[in-house]
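Work package 3, deliverable 3.1, input record:
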Amino acid sequence: MRVGIIGVGLTAFRPSTPEYSWKELMFEAASRAYADAGVDPRADVGSFVTCAEDYYEGFGIFDEFVPDQLGAALRPTCTVSGDGLQGLANAFMQIQTGLIEVAVVEAHSKISDVLTPIGIIEHGLDPIWNKPLGFHPYVVAGLEAAAYLRATHTPTKALDAVVSKTRRNALRNPIAAYGAAVDMDHVAASEARFEPLRSLDISGPADGAVVLVLASDRAARRLHANPVWIRGVGWASDSPSLETRDWAGATYARLAAGMAYRLAKVRRPSSEIDVAEVDDRFSYKELQHLEALGLAKSGEAGKAALRGAYAADGRLPVNISGGSLGCGNVFEATGLHRAAEVALQLRGDAGSRQIDGAKVGVAQAWRFVPSATGAVAVLGAGP
Amino acid sequence: MTFLERTTDARRYRAWEGNMEADYIYTSGLAGQRFFVALRDEGRLLAARCTACGLDYLPPRIFCEECFAELTEFVPVPPEGQVASLTVAHQDRTGALASPPQVWAFVTFKGVRGGLLHRLLATPDAARPGMRVHIRVRPREARTGTIADIEGFEPARSTK
C-alpha cells in the first residue's frame, strides 16, 4: 500500500509569538493543513500523531493536552517523544496496517515561552558522567564539529559557505525567521562561541508549528488529492553515551538513510535524489549529514559546498527552505518542516524557491545536541 | 487567515510565569560504584571488560554494547590518554560569557572503547588535538566519589 502526503500546513516561524498560545499555533498549522488537503478532521481523519517532549512544553503528560486544537477530541491520538519525522514514520506505519486511512502528524515549537532553553538541553546530558562538569551543552557540538572537520580535512571556510548559502535561501522563504544576505566574510568574522563554531554557525530559536495530512492511496483517490508519496522512512540511534559514539561521522543518519533507501529502492542516492533538506542546526551538520546520507563522499561535502554544488542552481539543491540556520531552530518540528518543504518542492508549490523538475527528495532529522538519533524520509512526486 | 482577529497591542498579552520543580538523586549503579570508589580512594580510572568482544569500556558499564553480555571484570585504564577532539567554549553553562574561555576535551585511551569528556587544563593556544594528557585528581581529602574528583586533563609530563 502506498502512503502519501495530501496536506501541508505551516505557520510562520518567528523568534517569538506573544499573541498565540502554543495550542493556537497548532490550531493555525492544522487549519492550514486541512484546508490544503480538503479534509474535515472531525469526519475524515482516523488518527492524530503529535511529537513533543514535556520539558519543552513546560508541563507533564503532553499527550493529554492534544486533542481539541487538532480536531482530534474523542479520536485515536498518540504522542511520539521525538522529532516530527519520527512521528511521520509512525503515521506512515499506522496507515500501512490498514486500520487507518488518513492520519495527521503534528510538531511544533513555542521555545520563546521557555525562559531557560539551554537548561533543558543540558538535562539531555548524562547526569553522572557529563552534567556535573558544568559545561554549556553546545560544547558537544563544538567537540563534534572539531572532530568532523579534522577527520574529513574539511576547511572551516566550507562552514562559511554553508551559512551564507542557507541564510540567503531563507530570503526566498516567507515563513523563515532568520533570512539574511550573509557573506562568507561575515560568518568568518562572527564571534567565536564553541570553537571551531562561531555565532553564525549556530541556528537561532524560533516558534512555529507544522502539520501534515497523510493518506493511503485509496483514501487519496477518494479525497481527490494530489499526493506526494512517502517512498521510504528510517530511523536509528548511535550509542547514547558521548563517550562511545562516533564523533566524526553521523552514524545515526547513515543507518536511518540506509533503512529509508532500502524501502524506497534508492540504490545510488547521489544520482537519484533531486533535492535534500538536512538538519543544519549547526553549520557543520549540513556537510556531515550529506556525507552520512550518501549524497557526498566522506570529506567531499565541504569542497562541494565551496564550489556551490548545494545552491539552488547547483548539482544538488540542499536546504532550499533556508534550513534551520535561515528559518530558525523549531526543535521537535525541525524534521517535519523539512518533509513539508520537500513535499512542496515535489508538488511544484515552493514559490520563488521552486527547483524545476524535482521528482525525488529526501528529508533528514536529528534530535539536536546531545543526541545521536535521527530519521530520514524519501519522498517522490506523483502520480 | 485562521483566526478572524489578531491582537496587535503587545500590552494586552497575558502570560503566567511558572516552573517545573523536580529534584532527583541519580544512582551511579554497580559499574559507577566501582569506578567512583576507585577514583576517590585510589585516584585511578577503571574500565569494564567484555572478555567475549575483547573490549574495555570507559565509562564502565555492566553490559556490553556489542554482544549484550553482563560484564563483571574491571581493569585499570592506561594512565596516559590522547585528546581526540577539543573545543574552546566562550560561553559558560548558562550562556553567559566565559572569561577566560574554557577548554573542553574528549580524551581516548589506547585499547579502551570510549573515553572521558572533561576540562583540558591548558590555555587555548597550547591545546592541540592529539596531545598526550593524564588526569589531574583533586587531593584525597577533597574527593567525594564523583566525576568532579577529576579536575581535568593536563598535558603529560613526557610532552611538556
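Chain B has one domain: 29-159.
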